[in-house]
TrEMBL record:
Pfam families, per database record: GBP (PF02263), GBP_C (PF02841)
UniProt keyword annotation of Ribonucleoprotein present: no
Gene3D superfamilies named in the record: Guanylate-binding protein, C-terminal domain, P-loop containing nucleotide triphosphate hydrolases
Name of protein: GB1/RHD3-type G domain-containing protein
Keyword annotations of the record: Coiled coil, GTP-binding, Hydrolase, Immunity, Innate immunity, Nucleotide-binding
Family per record: Belongs to the TRAFAC class dynamin-like GTPase superfamily. GB1/RHD3 GTPase family.
Length: 489
């Protein structure tokens, strides 16, 4: 999944069910778990029936994919995901998130609108906000979700404070964790000019975000959404789009041929797509860690579980939960890495314990380096201790296996070398005058051959001593018989 074409079509990531609420789809999590590349997550939000899905299909390089619908109600339910090879960043995966339209009056309960927006904001590295007509006060107030979000979602990771110590979010500290922001205005109805001179789309946005002087309640209401947007979305971009086709053809926009679509609209879409492809950054989380598909799936799962518990998603808690999962997996991977490395490099039995310990030290160092690359800094100490403990257990097993392999080799060597001695004992070769001296000479020759034999390992002396101790009763018997025979002669 990580290097080839991923999803041939979009897949539901988070279902918005009237009966169950928000539910992460296991099929989508399975797809993300197989994406090991860094992900560039581009999400779109905005009012329903404003053409969000069409823009996302074009970002996917397709005409069809995300459902456009043709009615007056939101057609996309929940959050839909499309994973594709990134068209401009080799080694990266582009994850497109199309979200349920905000403000669909037919839904009745719109509480999940806020949560879907929260998820979109927390999961994306670039957030596209799509509106229609112009950027006016109504459009600004439709972004009240941003203000609500920053009041609720405690990005404590930026401040390192306990929740009870935290009074109000500081936009200066929260902003780095927000995605880059692109405002797209569909069916734009104004001329891009000011005081009779042409202005850029970005200048139009900044003009719309300009604050008014004064302290009346009307001015405060005017300034509030603009202040929040300026504070939280430092990296801002604007694109405006003409109407793509006559109104009668809009319902079948995805089916229209190029010559049936307004050329200026096509140029605007190409400009928009190029910017998003080239400028959208990989998704990161506090600590500068780049998110992979598998981590993105875990983040989505963590956020949705938090919402379903009736709690507010917290970036610090999500990262900590993610760290627990990732670090546990990193420990498991590192222990396997250590075991495989030892099995590859260690040829049992080693001649000395020091030789095995030296190899252990090398493998342990490489294992720690691997763990550090895989693990999160959050709550890392306990996992480091667990890794050390498990590596020591594997090391102890290697020490035991080394001794056993040495013992087996030594016993086999002594078994081969002692065959002649055993045969002479069986044939009573040593039951003669001078037999004891003959026996001792054969035994000494056996020991010398044994000592020269390679590959005996760390138990060579111990096993030899055990062998000689087993011979001691025979040694005494042969010695007594030799003395008795000599006295009779």
């Amino acid at each position: 999944m990580a290097s080839g074409i991923l999803l041939p079509q979009p897949l539901c990531l988070v279902e918005n069910s009237p009966r169950k609420g928000l539910v992460v789809q296991q099929e989508a999590l399975q797809v993300l778990s197989e994406v090991t590349q860094p992900v560039v997550v581009v999400a779109i939000a905005g009012l329903y029936r404003t053409g969000k899905s069409y823009l996302m299909n074009r970002l996917a390089g397709r005409r069809k994919g995300f459902s456009l619908g043709s009615g007056v109600q939101s057609h996309t339910k929940g959050v839909w995901m499309w994973c594709l090879p990134h068209p401009r960043k080799p080694g990266h995966t582009l994850v497109l998130l199309d979200t349920e339209g905000l403000g669909d009056v037919e839904k009745g309960d719109t509480e999940n609108d806020t949560w879907i927006f929260v998820l979109t904001l927390l999961l994306s590295s670039t957030l596209i906000y799509n509106s229609r007509g112009t950027i006016d006060q109504q459009a600004m107030e439709q972004l009240h979700y941003v203000m609500e979000l920053t009041e609720q979602v405690k990005l404590k990771a930026a401040r390192g404070q306990r929740e009870e110590e935290q009074e109000e979010e500081d936009p200066e500290e929260v902003a780095p964790f927000f995605p880059t922001f692109v405002w797209t205005v569909r069916d734009f109805t104004l001329r891009l000019e000011r005081d009779g001179e042409g202005i850029s789309e970005d200048q139009y946005l900044e003009k719309a975000l300009a604050l008014k002087d004064g302290s009346s309640s009307k001015i405060r209401r005017y300034n509030q959404p603009r202040e929040r947007i300026r504070q939280l979305f430092r990296d801002r971009k604007c694109f405006v789009f003409d109407q793509p086709a006559p109104k009668r053809d809009l319902e079948r926009l995805e089916e229209l041929r190029d010559e049936e679509i307004d050329p200026e609209f096509q140029r605007q879409v190409e400009k928009f797509c190029s910017h998003v492809w080239e400028k959208s950054p990989p998704k990161t989380i506090p600590g500068g860690r780049i998110v992979t598909g598998s981590l993105l799936g875990k983040l989505a799962e963590t956020y949705v579980e938090t919402i379903r518990r009736g709690e507010v998603p917290c970036l610090e808690s999500a990262v900590l939960a993610l760290a627990q999962t990732v670090n546990a997996a990193a420990v498991k991977e590192a222990v396997k890495f250590y075991r495989d490395l030892m099995e590859k490099r260690v040829k049992l039995p080693t001649e000395t314990v020091e030789e095995l310990l030296d190899l252990h030290s090398q493998c342990q160092r490489e294992t720690q380096e691997l763990f550090q690359r895989r693990a999160f800094e959050e709550d890392i100490r306990s996992f480091q201790e667990d890794l050390t403990r498990q590596v020591e257990e594997v090391q102890e097993k290697f020490l035991r296996d080394n001794e056993q392999a040495s013992r087996d080799n030594c016993k086999a060597a002594l078994g081969d070398l002692s065959q002649d001695l055993v045969g002479k004992l069986r044939d009573d070769v040593y039951i003669v005058i001078g037999g004891y001296k003959l026996f001792k000479g054969d035994l000494q020759a056996l020991v010398k051959k044994y000592q020269k034999k390679p590959g005996k390992g760390v138990m060579a002396d111990a096993v030899l001593q055990e062998f000689l101790q087993s011979i001691e009763p025979l040694d005494e018997i042969i010695h007594k018989i030799d003395l008795a025979l000599a006295s009779k002669s």
